[in-house]
Design brief:
25% strand, Immunoglobulin-like, alpha+beta, TIM Barrel
């Protein structure tokens, strides 16, 4: 380990053997070797690696080209010693407990140091590389729970059941909010009209939903069904991604719903076509916004030779479509930090291990610059987990709701009133109403983050550097003064909570003087959370 200030800043350029010791270094298309200093910890890259952070606790390798790990990713890494690594293009990085080796595809790699903490490194990166827009998504996304029809209806989205789902929300006295109509409402992929066999009066349905107090979002993807008139039209206009340079053969891309063509969003006319479809849905049906799904650069986007097609750039271009709609949601995104876009964690299975990664992944989301995050659907969003509802774990759904309750956003999909006992339903309703009661305060934090660029969800290391808190992954800060410590282990009714310096008033009225670590009781109905009062 290096242990002097000079060696803290040393960067060895492998390709040339040069050594630089300036505060900020830029190298184009070369590999850098960065010595990790004693006790230095690193975060960043992809949301999915929040759970594995700090990254240098184990060997780590990540090539970001065509790979956002089915969630959000950015060419940013930051350390708790104030150091940062950035590029405008995908990074290829290896991290051990001693050094980092990193390069970028055809772009500069920028490295440097600003201050001595994780927070200082992040704020510098935010200002320099992805300055905050000052704007937030629609306030209703923060102030009330969201409801997604996916788990209840899956591929059978239809007018009658959507209205019933909304009516049941009200009947069971959950707060109304945004309702998202998910996949298979449409005629075909790319033919963005309601399926007339499932929806007899889609305009009337949306009017009814709005009369109940909901705002309405629709699921869309950038794919085009190859057996549709839309496909033939876009192919003729060369607005699809093609598999050959001559543009005679649209690429056939395999994704989770089959094989489709892909709208070429790098073409301004392709981008305009997609925006026109979305705006038409707003005008014709009264839709309020969109869940932009399947923007992933990996997997199906690498099933053929792209030539000069850039899958990361396509993912970024797709995310930009959401900027025209304050009601938006993305589940995959490349870059776009600091923008008023809702970033949801990838679908989780109905397992305790997946509930336990919600907090570190949300922390990871914030540390690559996405302030406005939503955990996955409560109880899980992986639909195969819900094929047999007789094996659902009620305790897991309750604890999942508690993890989400004081996040910036919370989202229901499986209907708690259908799958839970009366007692457990009451707890979930309490969590929904806690979020609703705190909604205005959460929204004010969102506005502050939109200006400052800071994450809304933070780890303790961010606010209390150098105290040994870097490994805490089961509690988080919402802003700087609210600390949340959910319990996410089956059958447990107590847990250890680390209290940083200051006075913390708990949900139970008890004031704790930090710094201290205490074991607290956590019955099933309790979400432990604390407000810093001094």
């Amino acid at each position: 380990m290096k242990n002097t200030l000079f060696t803290l800043l040393m960067i060895t350029i492998i390709s040339s053997g040069m050594i630089q010791s300036c505060k900020q270094n830029r190298v184009d298309s070369t590999k850098l070797e960065i010595d990790i200093t004693e006790d230095e910890k690193w975060w960043g890259g992809a949301v999915l690696d929040g759970r594995n952070s700090p990254l240098n606790d184990q060997p780590f390798a990540y090539d970001q080209f065509g790979n956002c790990k089915a969630n959000q990713a950015a060419p940013l890494f930051i350390s708790d010693k104030g150091r940062y690594i950035w590029s405008e293009n995908p990074l290829n990085i290896e991290i051990t407990n001693e050094r980092i080796i990193v390069g970028a595809r055809g772009a500069e790699v920028t490295t440097g140091k600003n201050g001595e903490t994780l927070k200082e490194a992040f704020l510098h990166a935010s200002r320099e590389f992805f300055p905050p827009s000052g704007k937030t998504p629609d306030p209703l996304l923060f102030t009330s729970p969201q409801y997604n029809t996916w788990i209840e209806l899956q591929y059978d989205q239809n007018e009658n059941d959507i209205l019933k789902y909304a009516e049941d929300i009200i009947k069971n006295r959950f707060p109304v909010g945004v309702i998202m109509i998910d996949d298979n409402w449409q005629d075909r992929y790319g033919t963005w009209k309601f399926d007339c066999e499932k929806f007899s009066d889609p305009k009337g349905m949306i009017r009814k939903l709005k009369a109940m107090g909901f705002k309405v979002m629709l699921w869309v993807v950038p794919f085009i069904s190859s057996d549709s008139p839309v496909y033939r039209e876009l192919a003729e206009k060369r607005l699809l991604v093609f598999a050959d340079k001559e543009k005679t053969r649209p690429a056939s891309i395999t994704w989770w719903n089959g094989v489709s063509a892909l709208v070429d969003l790098s073409n301004p006319e392709g981008e305009k076509w997609f925006k026109d479809q979305m705006n038409s849905l707003v005008r014709e049906y009264g839709v309020d916004g969109f869940k932009l799904d399947a923007g992933d650069p990996e997997g199906y986007l690498n099933t053929f030779s792209f030539g000069d097609f850039d899958p990361n750039q396509h993912c970024e271009s797709y995310a930009k479509l959401g900027l025209d709609f304050p009601l938006n949601e993305l589940r995959a995104c490349w870059k776009m930090a600091g923008q008023p876009l809702v970033q949801r964690l990838r679908d989780k299975s109905h397992t305790w291990s997946d509930v336990q990664v919600l907090i570190p992944d949300m922390i990871g989301l914030g540390l690559i610059g996405h302030q406005f995050g939503c955990p996955d659907m409560i109880g899980g969003g992986e639909w195969t987990s819900f094929q047999d509802t007789s094996v659902l774990d009620e305790e897991l759904i309750v604890r999942s709701a508690q993890v989400s309750a004081l996040m910036p956003m919370m989202q229901f999909s499986v209907a708690p009133w259908r799958v839970l006992s009366k007692e457990n339903l009451s707890i979930c309703k309490d969590m929904a109403n806690l979020h609703f009661r705190m909604g205005n305060e959460i929204m004010e934090m969102a506005r502050e983050s939109a200006i400052s660029g800071e994450p809304m969800v933070r780890n303790l290391e961010y606010e209390y550097p150098g105290k040994g808190y870097h490994g805490i992954k089961d509690q988080f800060l919402l802003g700087s003064k609210i600390m949340v410590a959910p319990l996410a282990e089956k059958g447990k009714r107590s847990r250890q909570v680390v209290f940083p310096e200051g006075k913390w008033m708990g949900d139970d009225g008890v004031i704790v003087d930090g710094p201290v670590s205490l074991t607290i009781d956590v019955p099933l109905e309790r979400l432990p959370w604390y407000r810093k009062v001094n």
